[in-house]
Amino acid sequence: KYLDLAYRVEKDTSVSIKVRGKLPCRLFEVLSILNETDLAGTWAPFFKSAEREYQYTKASQLVRQVYDYPLLGSKETIMFCAGINALEEAGCVMIFCRSPPENVETFLGLPIPEKRKIQRIQSADLVFLLYPISEGKQTTLELYGNFHHGMRFVPMKIITFVVKKVVRGMFVSIARQCQQFETGPYKERVEKDKDFYTWMEEKIEEYVKQQKYAAFKIPAESISLASFNYEDFQD
């Protein structure tokens, strides 16, 4: 009924977190939801707005995000995200997200977007590992993150509460968007960017088909999991 969630407060007061759970949807749907960054308000708690500043490659981008946290107020982050197809090597798709180094003027050959009135902080360092399981019908999502909150005078209990609430809410909301994928905003985005999403879906389906008939399968379903059932979190 619950997510497998653990966290630790580091010496620099950042919060490291590890989360693992099963989502009742195909890997293609989860990746589509994560890729459309300006629609993150459908699944990211406290989300206010987002803009895709640069599209470096087919699977990498620089994003400006604004979140409005309880007690902490509005904060802006600049986040670089890149996806890696590691299905053949590790049975998963990896997504890495983090802010460019502080005080640099350019990143990967392009200027860092100018600051606005909202306080800018470093984004969390995030690694998503997404495994297609159950013959491609479900997805195991593992998230490893380190949150640099930058709030020196805010009690750590509040910081850890916000971090845990964000992560738990994220899982529940992604699952909800998967359930509504055919009627929600993501279906329209998939149709609009058909070349990219067709390419992505073909890569996933090819791997799932290979695993179905392979003599040796990467045991993604045997990973120790605390099962996450979307229905258990309904209001």
From TrEMBL:
Protein name listed in UniProt: Start-2 domain protein
